[in-house]
Amino acid sequence: MSGVHEGPLSGVRVLEIADEKGRFCGKLLGDLGADVIKIEPPGGDRTRRVGPFLDDVPHRDRSLSFWYYNTSKRGITLALDTPDGRALFRRLAAESDVVLESLAPGVMAGWGLDHAALSADHPGLVYCSITPFGRTGPWAGYRSSDLIHMAGGGEMASSGYDETEAPDAPPIAPGGGNAWHTGAHYAMIAIMAALVAGQAGGSGQDIDVSIHDSCALTTEAAIANWVYRGEVLRRQTGRHHAVTQTPRTQFLARDGKYVTALISGGLNARNLKALAELMDACGFRHELHAEKYADPAVIASEAPRIINTMLADFIASIDSDTVYHTAQERGFTWGAVRSADELLDDPHLGDRGFWKTVAHPELGREFVYPGEAALFSDSPWRVSRRAPLVGEHNVEVLCGMLGLSRLRLVALMEAGVV
Predict the structure, then answer these.
(1) Residue 235 phi/psi, 5° resolution?
(2) For a disulfide at 334, which of 262, 327, 369, 377, Cβ 3.0-4.6 Å?
(3) Which residues fall within 8 angstroms of residue 368, CB to CB, at 6 or more apart?
(4) What are the φ and ψ backbone dihedral angles of 304, each rounded to 5 degrees?
């Protein structure tokens, strides 16, 4: 793009052979400027068949899920289960800095394409595999899903409803590929660290990322509390897990939307005075200025009524955005619960230029995408292109990079190699 500085990973080439477990890592690397070449089997990856599809027309080049997770990548097709496909992959790996793969443990090694084989020709290669449970250990061969990882990794134990609101309620998974996102984030961190180590004089590295390990790393205080204090952190509706019951935090506003209202530091005379002044500012009648509320014992005894009745009634009398912003202006950690469509109109995200318009030339249309999580002053993090069509860059990569003739490429296509 003319006039736009290159991203922080410009000059880094990544070969990606990744499904839903690892594609987010490739997206992050690509949006940060790496030249990510996504390798799919002839006909395209199975994740292209995941809906919803643009205009509800099922097609391998119209999957909205595939679009999102594969921005800023080039795409080629290559049958790695064929000798010619493997030979071409080895040539590509010799011209690359990173191999990112999320196939089942042992598959790449069986094809002679693991780190041990590839590093013989390219000692500086960073090789990263993302697998459900890692390449070693008694669970290495287990099958999994995002749901299985949320359960086995510990997150579900802290997610759901508390006993007072839903006795014997089951744990609830956060959902939406959170386990895969977690593993992909840690894989990106590991790859970046390995690249830095290589620049500092180190050699290439073989990185074994376990999604299960990544999830177990993100249970916050649950593991530490059990190991060091023998305490089990309990699920609590719409709020953080805790050893004991904590005050409710979610309340319906007048417009039928939820507001998350935290009383940071708990109920005490100072916070209660601030809450009373907030209610005053909104014209809500209350009794919190009564002298009895200067007594900590009274506050403690009436805390459930203050939270569940007074605070709930106050928020129910005002629209969610009004109470959210008025409370924030007075130092309260409150926020309105946003839906996806509301985020598109969020003025804060708009002011920061978060939403990006990405061209799809083959359709003659442009679409809005989520943008970057951080603004770089000189080397921008950005979506540089839409996801590749099936085999879109076969000629560019296989003929341009590797020097294959067009005739040879046609022969490989006819043989089912590309």
Answers:
(1) -65, 145
(2) 327
(3) 344, 355, 356, 357, 358
(4) -60, -40
pLDDT (average), residues 134-158: 94
Q: C-alpha angle with apex 56: 51 to 61, nearest 5 degrees?
A: 60
DSSP 3-state percent helix, strand, coil across the chain (nearest 5): 40, 15, 50
**Please, are residues 46 and 390 in contact by the beta-carbon 8 Å criterion?**
no
Q: How far apart are CA 264 and CA 360, in angstroms?
A: 46
Mean pLDDT along residues 55-68: 97
> Could you report the per-residue pLDDT of 1-25, keeping only the tens digit for each?
334 579 999 999 999 999 999 999 9
Q: Residue 77's Cα: distance from chain center in Å?
A: 26
pLDDT, one tens digit per residue, over 81-106 is: 999 999 999 999 999 999 999 999 99
Integer Cα distance of 383 and 271 in angstroms = 44
Instruction: Give the start-to-end residue ranges of the domains of the chain.
Output: 13-218+347-414, 250-344
Residue with tokens 């999580």: 373
CB atoms closer than 10 angstroms to residue 242: 16
* 231-247 tens-digit pLDDT: 999 999 988 899 988 88
CA angle 313, 241, 317 (to 5 degrees): 10
Helix extents (H) in 288-335? 296-305, 312-316, 320-329
Tell me which CATH code domain 13-218+347-414 carries. Answer: 3.40.50.10540
Q: What separation in angstroms does the CA of 64 have from each of 58, 302, 305, 364, 368? A: 10, 51, 47, 16, 11
Using left for φ > 0, alpha for ψ between -120 and 50, and beta otherwise, residue 403 falls in: left
pLDDT for the residue numbered 2 = 39
Strand arrangement of the beta sheet that strand 250-252 belongs to? 250-252, 258-261, 334-336
Peptide bond into 52 cis (omega under 30): yes
Encoding tokens for residue 350?
């708009």
Return the C-alpha torsion angle 180, 181, 187, 191, nearest 10: 140
In the block, residue with structure tokens 């030339």:
361
Strand order in the sheet with 205-210: 73-77, 35-40, 13-17, 98-101, 126-131, 205-210
Task: Give the model confidence (pLDDT) of 164-186 as tens digits.
Answer: 888 888 999 877 899 999 999 99
Q: Are 389 and 14 in contact (CB under 8 A)?
A: no
